[in-house]
Amino acid sequence: MMAAMALRAMTWNLWWRFGEYARRQRAIVDTIRSVDPDVVCLQEVWSTADEDQVAILAGELAMHAVRTDPVLYDGHSFGNAVLSRWPIERIDSVTLPSSTGAPSHRSVIGGVVLSPAGPWPVASAHLDHRFDASATRVAQARRLLELATMWRGDPDRDPPLLLGVDVNAVPDSDEVRMLTGRASGVDGVVFSDAWEQCGDGVGETWRSANPLTAGSAWPDRRIDYLFVSWPRPKPVGNPIRTWTAGTAPVDVDGAAIWPSDHAAVVADITTVADVTTRS
User: Fold this and answer.
1) Superfamily of domain 7-271, CATH level 4
2) Which among 72, 109, 176, 179 is most buried, taking Cβ atoms within 10 Å?
3) Structure pTM?
4) What are all long-range contacts of 256-259, with beta carbons under 8 Å and residues at least 24 apart?
């Protein structure tokens, strides 16, 4: 029997409309094309009354898309999206809480990808960014776990929830420890960290080598994650290869353009027992 291909997932914070966003857009498209993902979880996507970055990317890449509900501030929105090689049905767009339980300006979008392996739930989220906002991120992480219990289907039979998220926190933080089962969270669900399972090296996604991070108070750190919910039907959902992308400038009209201030995380995910990865 011919081996089945793994599902290739990518998550990336696109740095909204900062910097040379029009030329960065072309570098973003080129970078995603070079990865050839099946699904892409995006954070910091924008829209206006007349333009939607998600629709532009989906058109350029010939992919399907769902996104968070646009809420315009000064004519622009800030949100998350999922792109898919296959049709995708939106589940919900959910506002994440602050530490007090009040709504924050962060959100998560959930959808079901109609993949050849069957309906596969995928979500993209973005947690609060401030150094001192761990309490808010913990509340947001707990909400993601709660949503996972509703979006993942039957954990004994169905594909697990794939979550791409800019946590804005390092692996030993309280919020990531909660998500990965190292600290008390929500009974019946945790997430596997694809990088921890099969990444090579530290896997930093916030890097001083990227000039778009100049002046940041943050050191080099891993803050972007591809997570897969557990329990799940073994070995479906197991990451088998994980790496970073968007770690170098892209040539745009002869200029070296960095596509984003974040690096992307990419992983090949097992869909069935007999699986091969792409080179």
Assistant:
1) Endonuclease/exonuclease/phosphatase (3.60.10.10)
2) 179
3) 0.95
4) 257/20, 257/23, 257/24, 257/26, 257/27, 258/24, 258/27, 258/210, 258/211, 258/212, 259/14, 259/24, 259/27, 259/28, 259/30, 259/31
